[in-house]
Amino acid sequence: MEEISIRIGDTGDSTSHVVNILNRIGLLTTRPNIFNGEVENAVRAFQQSRGLTVTGVVNAVSLRTLEEAQWKLGDRSLFVKTPPLMRGDDVATLQARLTDMGFDCGRVDGVFGPRCEKAIKEFQKSVGVTADGICGPRTIAAFMRLLRTVSGGAPAVLRESAAQKTRGPALANKVIVLDPSCGGSNKGISENGVEESEIVYDITRRLEGRLLALGVSVFLTRGSDGSPTEAERIALANQTHADLALSFHVDRYANEKANGVATYFYGTKNHGVHSVVGERFASLVQREICARTDLLNCRTHEKTWDLLRLTVAPTVRIDLGYLTNPGDAQRLARPDFRDVIAESVVIAIQRLYLASEDDAKTGTLRISDLRKAGIRS
């Protein structure tokens, strides 16, 4: 992804573009020709509302999300185009309305793809509009007419939950993608004697061995020296038709006192959608790690990061402490501590698939218990 950084003091076309969008979506009422404190505060408010990392700096992800936010349903015709596909709040609104009406367009992710096109065609057939898969003026008008007369439950939520339950408790034959962070711009940089890419890769290898022993098909998004892009890692997870995907990271912060573990799942309050299975799995991972280690509980959070948003399988990102905190770094440097992390995640995965009556208290289940329970022969 192209490096972009629009920040305090910047001027020019890029700053004007950001200011114009912030005005259009109602977060700015003035049009300064410089990226000043008012613009920074508006960017922070936008990032907070969209589940992005709040920095006040417009990077590539924030810029793309701003550009998506400027579109309201009806501003343009929506259709499947040659990649990159159309993205925007208008697409997300369309997906949410289709879902409420019972048409399966998949996850509400704001990306107009083939599944969304198929759902549009089905809707168009049902209301007597030309079934061309293009959401133009006539299709939007049909939506507006039906909006007050059709109300749905949460079919996407029900579908995701049902799919997870029908997979059964056994881990054998399930497909899980493990994504060890490459370290990004911090690759090769050590903090307190520990490097992110090496630590998370070691943890995923320990986790891989335990999952393979339980009959799971495991895919790693990179090798020991690889640095695939985020898009490549998402594509791999989707190509494998994974049941789950886990992305492992460690954090950094200017203040060395920042410490603890946090987990993230896909969700956004803007369109009232989130991954039900992802949220439950994030909670299980967070609770198991905190019960088995002395890492501070920084809780679970919904985010709209692309890895969570565009990976089809329920996906969780785990930030395993802060390398800038001497205590967290010391823990992560210990092989026995990384073993505990790996076991915690395996147990969380198993608990995700257990029926409530077969579940165990957080922090008590062990891998050896899985055989005794008949989950592994």
Automatic annotation (TrEMBL):
<dbReference type="InterPro" id="IPR002508">
    <property type="entry name" value="MurNAc-LAA_cat"/>
</dbReference>
<dbReference type="Pfam" id="PF01471">
    <property type="entry name" value="PG_binding_1"/>
</dbReference>
<dbReference type="InterPro" id="IPR002477">
    <property type="entry name" value="Peptidoglycan-bd-like"/>
</dbReference>
<protein>
    <submittedName>
        <fullName>Unannotated protein</fullName>
    </submittedName>
</protein>
<keyword id="KW-0378">Hydrolase</keyword>
<dbReference type="Pfam" id="PF01520">
    <property type="entry name" value="Amidase_3"/>
</dbReference>
<dbReference type="InterPro" id="IPR050695">
    <property type="entry name" value="N-acetylmuramoyl_amidase_3"/>
</dbReference>
<dbReference type="GO" id="GO:0009253">
    <property type="term" value="P:peptidoglycan catabolic process"/>
</dbReference>
<dbReference type="GO" id="GO:0030288">
    <property type="term" value="C:outer membrane-bounded periplasmic space"/>
</dbReference>
<dbReference type="GO" id="GO:0008745">
    <property type="term" value="F:N-acetylmuramoyl-L-alanine amidase activity"/>
</dbReference>
<dbReference type="InterPro" id="IPR036366">
    <property type="entry name" value="PGBDSf"/>
</dbReference>
<dbReference type="InterPro" id="IPR036365">
    <property type="entry name" value="PGBD-like_sf"/>
</dbReference>
<feature type="domain" description="MurNAc-LAA">
    <location>
        <begin position="234"/>
        <end position="350"/>
    </location>
</feature>
